[in-house]
Design a protein that fits this description.
There is one protein chain. The chain is mainly beta. The protein has one domain: Jelly Rolls. Strand 15 and strand 16 form a beta hairpin.
């Protein structure tokens, strides 16, 4: 994966992970390096993404616990995408996320398809590591052919608040699924923006779910706003360098046998699109999709 494929000037790290695939972006001063602390990155005010399932085939793979699932989300973190942090702190330990979970479970009458929306905030504790300090999870119904809009906006430091919104567009309606004001528990503004595909954790077994085999679909219109309305990822008017931290789900863990890696990125500032490669390590099947 080259920097130009994700509209970045620098990829500071390719990180092999057991449940994340995607990109974390930050805007770094051109005279500095990705090894510097968070205050060297520009403040990011919001992040937005559109997940299109209109022309998507989601195949049930099979699993010991009966369910396959995939989580697609965006996030903001007070830290910049620096490889100076390990997985127990920084961008993998402190962030506010919002997104959707698509879950498929086999039943007597065929596969049962469900969609959940969620917002969750994680904070690092020196004793326990990263843990959820705020969680909202909501079942919203069956949306097998729809577009989802996900946004986290405007960290208000005097009030320590951020706004989360998730909506869905179908051929029949437009509906707001989640709209929250969430406490921003960190002492800094946001300095990085995420677009991530994940193998979610099963709430009962605490193991990572088998990722669905996705064909088609698209993650599009990804963007974040910084520095007086500048839109990224893309060229900056403020002599900043777009730095990226790329995650690759190449170490299947728990109940998951699927590897997920970023296959392609294209677009323009304010409308960046991504497709992922799904490779099942048991069946050998490879597909591309959102």
């Amino acid at each position: 994966m080259s920097p130009s494929c994700i509209e970045a000037q620098c990829i500071c790290c390719h990180y092999k992970n057991h449940n994340w695939a995607g990109v974390v972006y930050g805007e770094l001063g051109d005279c500095l390096t990705p090894y510097c602390p968070c205050y060297t990155f520009a403040r990011i005010e919001c992040v937005f993404e559109r997940v299109c399932l209109n022309h998507t085939t989601i195949n049930y793979v099979g699993s010991k616990n009966g369910a396959n699932a995939i989580s697609i989300w965006v996030a903001l973190s007070p830290y910049g995408p620096s490889n100076a942090f390990n997985e127990r702190r920084g961008i993998t330990g402190d962030f506010l996320q919002a997104g959707i979970i698509v879950c498929v479970t086999p039943t007597i009458n065929g596969n049962e398809y469900k969609v959940y929306v969620f917002a969750c905030e994680y904070c690092t504790n020196c004793l326990t590591g990263s843990r959820a300090v705020y969680t909202c999870n909501k079942y919203v119904g069956i949306f097998s052919h729809a577009c989802f809009f996900i946004a986290i906006c405007k960290v208000n430091m005097p009030l320590n608040e951020a706004r989360v919104a998730i909506a869905v567009l179908t051929p029949k309606c437009y509906k707001i699924l989640l709209c929250l004001i969430v406490p921003w528990i960190f002492p800094y503004f946001a300095h990085s923006a995420y677009t991530i595909v994940e193998s979610p954790e099963n709430a009962e077994t605490k193991e990572y779910c088998e990722v669905l085999q996705v064909v088609g679909g698209l993650i599009k219109c990804f963007r974040y706003m910084y520095c007086n309305g500048q839109i990224g990822p893309g060229p900056s008017q403020f002599r900043l360098v777009t730095v990226a931290y790329v995650f690759c789900l190449t170490e299947p863990c728990g109940l998951n046998n699927m590897c997920v890696t970023l296959a392609h990125g294209a677009g323009y500032p304010g409308n960046w699109c991504y497709t992922y490669r799904f490779y099942n390590t048991v069946t050998g099947k490879t597909t591309c999709g959102l």
